[in-house]
Amino acid sequence: MALTLRWGTVTAVTQRLDELIHCTVDGNDCIAYPRQTGQVEVGDTVLVNTQGRDLGLGSGGFDVLYANMTRGVGLLPLPSAHVMSLPYTTGQAASVCVEENDDLAADLEGMPVVCCGLHSQLAPVVAGIGAGVRIVYAQLGGGALPVALSDTVRALKARHYLETAIAIAPCLDGDVQALTIASALAWARGRGFDVVVCGIGPGIVGTGSALGHGGLAVAEAANVTAALGGRAVIAVRYSGADPRERHRGVSHHTRSALGLMLGARDVAWPAGLRGYAAVGDVVEINVTGWQQACSGIPLAHMGRGPAEDPWFFATAFAAGRHARALLQ
Which domain holds residue 32? Predict the structure, then answer.
């Protein structure tokens, strides 16, 4: 397992955010995480990891800035940070974790935790929950690890749907960092959040097999939720337009994750949609008006929007609407 690195020069900075920079290196699209690499300016000499783009993997088509040799050498860790993210790898960096300083609730006391096997479910789930409640997004391993990569999280924060994003190891670069799912959920409860939405980052890791994909992270999230006294709500991955048979109807990702769940959970299902026998007992949810509720929120999955694959988004919306109902 080798890194594919090359030297380059930053030729343009096209977008600069607090936690993410889009740039070009020798004309090739590249992203940088300034909290890890330092700021990036035109003319900087950098090392970039080109392997993902070289192999045609992922959904971005860009390189990742590995190190800025002009202004990123000698960066210091955050004050009081000593828990390593990505420990004993070439990317290890110290972070401050919620377990170190914050009070963690001993019991979730029925708090709804929506479990998403795809990052593209996050927006419709949050729309289903709606405004007026405190929602925290908790990112699980299984896709992109940096929370900062997600345009969806930024958009939902800007619209005041999401209050906070927590990165659960091995994820990183969230508003706050947690070592485990259990501590992340306990922290959210202790801080007075109403709902947690758990999900993997953009770009799910997959092999085509039932047990070799990032979506299985939701099984652990659901199991931990049940063990801590929360209410796990499963967002089913459903598609009527996916060209791959294993993902048409109820995806084999959802079916395999459900098979690994040991505790109680609510499987949300939109009323009027056939095919729920594939997931067993469901909670049927009236999703009337879901398109209007999602208005203004970016919705996309594998290049398809609500017009091309409406039930994908309506099914995720059902999970959010059920979570909101549990708060009544």
Answer: 5-68
